[in-house]
């Protein structure tokens, strides 16, 4: 990383910290304004911030290019994508990881490059927090569809409720090792244990 890149990255990370609520634990830390210090603090508190994700994306780009990193996908993911493609169902990605990082992962998966399945429709925290309904409304607007036309799938309850509040049809994906779901979530939302459960019969 050049000195100018380090300066830009540090500025983005400082902006991440300044954007946090005044009572956030990171704000209470006596942070040194260094990249390492701020990154450790943000990651230690599981902060999903744009500057941090941008830095991670740059690191991943280097790792994927060298072959040191390979993107993991679940075994049901590619068959689900094939079904969606065959039935003209558009698949988009909304992740706390930057758009650049998303594309890198899907370009270098265990099954090869699968970026063709997404048609360039990737969204990240620049569309807003994944825990806020307004973010999902922003995404629906960008896609040119009504929120109720979108099926949103996630394994995180806060995201499911936010998508539901925005008007989307929210579905909970359960994977081994996930945190237990609340009784309320189990009652309110459809639950799938394989993404292939989302695939209907082809006409």
Summarize the structure.
The chain has 203 residues and is mainly alpha-helical.
Describe the structure.
With 203 residues, the chain is mostly helical. 43% of the residues lie in helices and 7% in strands. It has helices spanning 3-18, 35-44, 50-66, 77-86, 99-107, 133-143, 157-165, 183-188, and strands at residues 93-94, 122-123, 151-154, 169-173, 191-192. The strands form 2 sheets. It has a 3-stranded parallel β-sheet with strand order 3-4-5, covered by helices on one side. Strands 1-2 form a two-stranded parallel ribbon.
Walk me through the topology:
Blueprint: H1 3-18, H2 35-44, H3 50-66, H4 77-86, E1 93-94, H5 99-107, E2 122-123, H6 133-143, E3 151-154, H7 157-165, E4 169-173, H8 183-188, E5 191-192
In whole angstroms, how far apart are the ends? Answer: 52 Å
Strand arrangement in the largest pleated sheet: 3-4-5
Overall mean pLDDT stands at 91
The helix/strand series, from N terminus to C terminus, equals HHHHEHEHEHEHE
Number of helices: 8
Share of residues in helices: 40-55%
Low-confidence stretches: none
Query: Which value, in Å, is the CA radius of gyration?
Result: 18 Å
Strand content: 5-15%
User: Count of DSSP E strands?
Assistant: 5
Which structural class is indicated by helix and strand composition? Answer: mainly alpha
Main sheet? 3 strands, parallel
Q: Report the principal-axis shape.
A: globular
Which terms summarize this structure?
globular, 203 residues, three-stranded parallel sheet, two-stranded parallel sheet, mainly alpha, 43% helix
